[in-house]
Specification:
120 residues, two-stranded antiparallel sheet
Length: 120
């Protein structure tokens, strides 16, 4: 009798628990205060067919050594879809609420050509 009760309890708990797995993504355990670097992708537009690389328009670019160290290797599917995963200057600290943080002190001035592309 105890055996059947144990089997019934295990079966009942198994149906209540849920889990999921995203292929190619390994779980990451982060603690309070751990930093997580934010990655950026391509810039897309509703009017442009081809996406632009994120750093095409002279945003603040991380140093070259950071880009080489953190750049993700692209697989064939990412190449075909035009994904261009790049490191950024943005960071997130776990369980720390930050409303606003300055990334850079420079002011960016865009040329007329860049502005025409950005408007389209």
């Amino acid at each position: 009798m105890r055996f059947f009760a144990a089997v019934a309890a295990i079966a009942a708990s198994a149906s209540v628990s849920q889990a999921f797995y995203v292929p190619g993504v390994s779980p990451l355990n982060l603690q309070e205060g751990d930093t997580l670097r934010v990655k950026v992708n391509k810039l897309t537009s509703q009017q442009a067919v081809i996406p632009y690389p994120f750093y095409k328009f002279r945003q603040w670019v991380p140093p070259t050594e950071v880009i080489k160290k953190e750049r993700k290797k692209e697989n064939l599917g990412e190449k075909l879809w035009g994904d261009q995963i790049e490191p950024s200057l943005y960071e997130v600290s776990m369980k720390k609420n930050v409303t606003c943080r300055k990334v850079c002190d420079e002011t960016i001035k865009y040329s007329e050509v860049d502005m025409a592309v950005l408007k389209n």
